[in-house]
Every structure is written in structure tokens, then in C-alpha cells.
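Late entry, written up from scratch paper. The run itself happened at the end of the previous shift, but nothing got recorded in the book at the time, so transcribing now.
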Amino acid sequence: MATQAPFPLNPTLTAVALAYRNTEMIADLVLPRVPAHDAFFYTKHNKDESFTVPDTLLGRKSEANEVEFGATRVDDSTQDYGLKDAVPLADLRKAEGTPIDPTAVATENLTRLITLDRERRVANAVFAAGNYATGYKATLSGTDQWSDYTNSDPLDDIMAALDAMVMRANTLVLGQPVWTKLRMHPKVVEAVKGTGAGADAQGMITRQQLIELLEIQNLYVGSAFINGAKKGATASYARTWGKHAALLYQEPTSTTENATTFGFTAESGGGLRVRDWFDPKVGSDGAQIIQVVDTVKEVICANDLGYLFTNAVA
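Output as recorded:
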């Protein structure tokens, strides 16, 4: 028999949480959400079986050769990520008759933090060298970094990586500092605009121009900031996606069981949702408690469907 949660979902505030969109956040684009149960499994396929061609010649009365496809089942489960805030009853009374809804404001603020935490988790997963197969990653340094406009050649690096991948990447993920340098790199500008200035080419290109030049489908730039200092300490802001770049093969998938893609996010419980309840023990007159929860698990399921450039710029 199904059981009811002690604090039912608030559909109005859940709609507020779902409607909140920070355009600086790219986590849901890089590791798209896929509906799943709390406990789920995904499949890691044997790449060799897809590229090793058996004898397909079929005689007039012979039987076709039989092949077998093996795969490894990986069991996993989603995790709850949540925060709550107390809205004093006094604040609710003051807001009566005004366009301000303190519970909606609290919901947006909580959602902002939960979304930023997910952004950090996805960035850490996508830019972790351990999540890539051997030969599908490179650490750039010195004159090889794309911020060196004289010696580096980012297009040559990217095209070589695309050619090395057994399934050509269709997505490029960049930290904002990488995009800033890459879009002004003389060799990139010259390749796009054909100015004739060669290594002295100046200007900037757009994201769409780079997409067309590389013949990929998606270009995502992570520009969000995060404060890495502990609460109470002097703020220390840094780009969540750092100075790295990754080429990924993404394939839209409807289930976790058959995902031929670099990675995805399993989502259960409906994703972002909001519960609220009244707590008489908070403050002098009590408070409305707002809790926002996101139930997900970020999964890297095919480490050979990505190519990582660590420290792409200085």
C-alpha cells in the first residue's frame, strides 16, 4: 500500500522551483536528466563487439553466423540533495496585500543554491581526468595552451581529438575563460572569417560560427561563479567550470538501461520539488518551513565517448 509523505508537496512552490532558470547553469545540458527509479541500473557495452565484423557470408543452405553481445550491468541509486529555510510568520503578515511572496522568494533562493551545487558536481565529473579512457585526455601546458596565441593551435588539437574518437563528439563544453581566449585566437578567427591576416588576424567569433566550423551540434560554456570559502570566511570566487574543455558524444536517451552517451543524470521523484509546513517552535510566532529537494545521480557511463583537455588556457 502506498504511503503518504508527512509533508505533502506544495504544487505552487514546486512550480516556482521548476520555473527558476539561471542561464549561466549548463549542468542539465551537459549531463541531461533521464527519468529513473530511486534504484536503477545502466549498461556498459563492450565497444569491441560493435566494431569487430564477423564473417557475414551466407551460403545457399547454410545458417548465418551467430553473434553475442555482452554488456556489464551497473546498479546505482539516486541521492537526495536539499535545503530548507524558515519564513517567520511575522514576515508573511507584513507581505499581505503586497506583490511580494516571501515563500516564493525563499523557494527561488533555495533552488539557486541547489542548482549551483549540481553545477559544481557536474563540472567536477565532466572535467575529472579519471572519467576518461586512456588516450582520450591531454593536459596542456606552456606554449601548448590556447591562451598562447603565437605557438598554440587549438583547431589542430580539437580536430585531432575528434578524429581519434570512435564515435565523433557532437558537443563541446568549455569553461568561460577558455571560451574567452578561444574565440579571439588568431588561428580560429582566420579559419572562420578568412581575413587573409593569418597569424595576425584579430576579432572574435560567435558560438554558432565555431559550431559550424567544427561540425558539431552543441557548444556549452560554463560561466557560473562559486564561492569556495567556508561560511563566515572572506569570499573566494572562482569559475565553477574552471579552465578546461571537453568533447563529448551525447545521444538523447529515454531510459537509463540503454544509454549510448558519455553521461547522463538519473532523476527520480520528479526532480526538483518543494514541501512546506508550519513550525510553531521557530521565532516568536512560528514560521513556515520551505524545503527544496532534488533527487538525482550524475553518471559517466561511457568514458571513451569523451575527450578532455585539462588546463586548456593559462
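DSSP finds nine helices and 14 strands in the chain.
(Scratch paper discarded after transcription.)
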